[in-house]
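Reviewer comment 2.1 asked that we show a complete input and output for one of the modelled complexes. We chose the FE2/S2 (inorganic) cluster case, as it is the one discussed in the main text.
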Amino acid sequence: MFRRITEPDAETVIIRFEGERLKVAAHETVAAAVLATNPEFTRTTPISGEKRAPYCLMGTCFECLMEIDGEPNRQACMMIVTDGMVVKRQTGKREMPE
Ligand code: FES
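Response of the prediction step:
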């Protein structure tokens, strides 16, 4: 569904999604980087466990909530990747760290 268009001389960073090493353009959002891998889903809903993935990519639907660098409930479409970032699917309801 999604295809990554790479600029040959674009700066890249390395992130991990569910343990998989991804080399992505430094200006991409986390959601765009993960969607380019064609994941089946990026989170499950708290009540039914339904599988979801980023939808609006502009910060309004909250379908892109993921665990990023150990912090749950992060809007992946609103965050730019950084080198060494660790991204995981979010399962159900997650508590916010204090
Ligand atoms: S994809 Fe809709 S808020 Fe992130």
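Strands lie at 12-17, 20-25, 43-44, 51-52, 65-68, 71-75, 86-88, 90-91. We note this here for comparison with the apo prediction described in Section 3.2.
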